[in-house]
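User: Show me a protein chain along with its predicted structure.
Assistant: Here is one chain, sequence first, then structure tokens.
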Amino acid sequence: MLNFAVQTAKNICFLRFEPQNVLSLFQINAMIKRELKNIIIKHLFKNKAVILTGPRQSGKTTLIKEICRAIDKPMIWLDGDEPDVRQQLTDASSSFLKSIIGNNKLVIIDEAQRIENIGITMKLITDKIPDVQLIASGSSAIELSNKINEPLTGRKFEFFLFPISFAEKVKHSNLLEEKRLLKHRLVYGYYPDVITNPGEEKKIIKLLSDSYLYKDILTWENIKKPDKLERLVQLLAFQVGSQVSYNELSNSAGIDNETVERYIYMLEKAFIIFRLNSFSRNLRNELKKSKKFYFYDNGIRNAVINSFNPVELRKDIGILWENFLISERMKYIHYNNIYTNKFFWRTNTQQEIDYIEERDGKLFAYEFKWNPQKKGIISKTFIKAYPDSEIKIITQDNYTNFIM
């Protein structure tokens, strides 16, 4: 059971987790160690705030608690979902902040985007109380960025937490076990609650999708009837790996182009989808302004279209495989500080490369094939246009080297 110490300041009550008791609801030996944990710890106490963002329910709060436990310093935890916390941290003076923080060395502000003028408050903590480490988390990229970017310029380290990665799960168990679960992951994804509750996957991923998927967007846009937004997300789910036309989406969803573009922007900032733009350098018939969208998690993609059939019964296995590989590759690139541009390639004559990375002036091209028995064909046009590129076909036989 978690024990709490209560610290009061000017009639407000804050929960302060004792460092030895900041575990999440699962036992420590059942926890999946996150790649960001040690990375963030190395950036602490350098006179900069640490900002942690990521999708809702991706494990941000649990990760921060693990970090606090590892640091083992007195701390105060402030929850931006609490009305009194929001009230007191809005336009707070440095003197008042010092009285709240007291002798604590770690200050955690969870769901920081909920607090007005939080950027100024965080700046005061960072500048006026330099021996304190501030860690703030948020699931709303737009709100949090708008509130902290200017006040915290040069005063912050920013990190992004994805749902669990293939590599993290391998380290938690072993490679053989995770490879055996590949087909299961293609359907249900890698959200922490999904992974840690076997047998409850469908119920949990539907709950996550229905309860959290649109929460931030509905708040930002003040949308009363989200059926058009839900329809747009479903259309994007069916078009994973395909070129997306805003005109087609507009006609199918029954909303104008401007609204489609705005909703997609919001979906990206809510960490539901991400985009790849088309690569174009040498050829006249290369698509220059096209885009494809992917979901951060396969389970969410399947939940929005209510499709949980096993892989063997699915006609969209190619879509699931491509979304899985690219989303896992995003995690690998992010956690390993690989600086690369990311694209897909396609021509007007329908020649294509699924995924391209550009690093240090060199191109790395990848084609994804679910069935290793099917021979992958690389476009001769691409090879001729970019002869110095490195090209690989990723199948079930070699995918682990691509994502970990």
